[in-house]
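New to this. Please check this record:
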Amino acid sequence: MQPPTPKPLWRMFLTFLWPMMLSNVLQALSGTLNNIFLGHMIGVKALASASVVFPVVFFCIATVMGLASGATVLIGQAFGARDEERLKSVAAVAVGATAITGVAMALGGLILAPAMMRVLGAPTDIYADAVAYTRAIAFAMPALVVFLLYTAMLRGVGDTRTPLWALAVSTLVGLVVTPLLIKGWLGLPPLGPASAAWASAVSSVAGMSWLGWTLHRRGHVLAPNKAFLAHMRMDPAILKLVLIIGVPAALQMVAMSLAEIVLLGLVNSFGSDATAAYGAVNQVMAYVQFPALSIAITASILGAQAIGAGHAERLRPIVRTAMMMNLIITGGGVLLCYIFAEPIVRAFISRGEVVELTQTLLHIVLWSCVVMGMGSILSAIMRASGEVWVPTLISIAIILVVEAPTGWILSHRFGVTGVWWAWPAAFTMILLAQTAYYKLVWSKKTITRLI
C-alpha cells in the first residue's frame, strides 16, 4: 500500500476530481432520470410525490454520510501513514455500524411513513403516493447506505475510479428498471411513483455486488474478503474515533435536513406545482453543488493523507488550491445554468407556468453554490485534522437561526419565491463565520495524526 506520489497540488486535485465529479453526476443522474420518468411518464403529481420525500431521504443519507466522513478522515490518515491494519479496522467498523443504521432506518420508514408525510404537510392529492414512495425507499435504505459508504471509503485511499464504475453500473441498472416498473413490464402491476424508489433498491444492490466482486478480484485493501471481515467487530476505540469525527458531520447534515423539512413544508403550502418546482430546483442544484462538494471532499482527503504522512505544512496550500478550483469549476457550472436555465428546467417539467416558476427560483439561488463551496472547503480541511465540533456548531447555528427563519419570514412577505432566499443567506453567513474561525483559531493550532 503506497500513498500517492507527490506532484503539483492542482494536478493532484484534478486526478481526484474528475472521477469524483463524474461519480457524483452519475449519482445525481439516477435521481434525475427517475424524476424525468415520473414527470413525463406519469405526470407532475408523480414528480411532486417523489419531491416531498426528499428531506426524509436526505436525512437518512446525511446521517450515514456523517459516519462515512469520520471513517474517510481516519482511513486517509492511516493510508498516509502506510498502516494497512488500522485502515482495515476503521473500514470494517464503519461498514458494520452503517449496516445496522441502515436496517434501523428501513424499519422506521416502513412503519412511520404515513406520520412522516403528515408532518411534512404532503398535499392531499399526492399523500397516498408519497407514503408508498417513502416505504419503497425505506426498503432500499440498507443497500443504499452501505454502497454509498464504500464509495466514500475508497476515495480515502485515493481510489476514485472504482466508485465511478460502480456508480455507472448502478445508474445503468436504474435506467433500465425504472421505466419497466412504471409500466409494469416485469410481470408486476404498474407501481406508480414508487417505481423509482424500488428501482433504487435494485440498482444499489447491483452496484454493491459489482463493487464487492471487483475489489475481491483485484485484491484491494478494502475488498470485503475473509481478512476484511475478520476486522468487522465493534472495536470501541476505533468506533469512538469514527464517531468523534462522524457525529458532528452527521449532526450538521441532519440540521440541514431539518431545515429542508421546514422549508419544504412552507413550499408545500403553496400547492403541488410549487412542490414539483422544488424537486426540479433540487435536481439542478445538485449538479451545480457536486463540483463544490467534490472539491471539499478532495481537500479533506488530501489533508488527511498529508497529516498521516506527517506533512501538516501542506494544509494551507491545499486550501488555496481548493478555493481556486471552486471559483473556476463551480463558478463555471453556475454560469452555464444561468445561460441555459429554460431548456434545463424543461427536461423535468413541461407545464409552462411551473417552468417559469422554477426558472425564477433557480435565478435566486444558483450563485450561492460558489459561496457554499468556499465554506465547505474550510470545514473539510479542519475536519481532516480532527477539528469538527466548532465548525459544525457554527453551521448548525446558522442553519437554525438564519436559514429556516429567513425562509419563513420571506415566504410570508414574497410568497413561494421568498423561501429560496434562505439558502443564499445561510451560505453567506456560514462562509463568514467559518473563515473567522479558520484564520483566528484553527490556523494557530498544532496538527497531528489521530490514528
Remarks:
- The chain has a mean pLDDT of 86.
- The two ends are 17 Å apart (CA to CA).
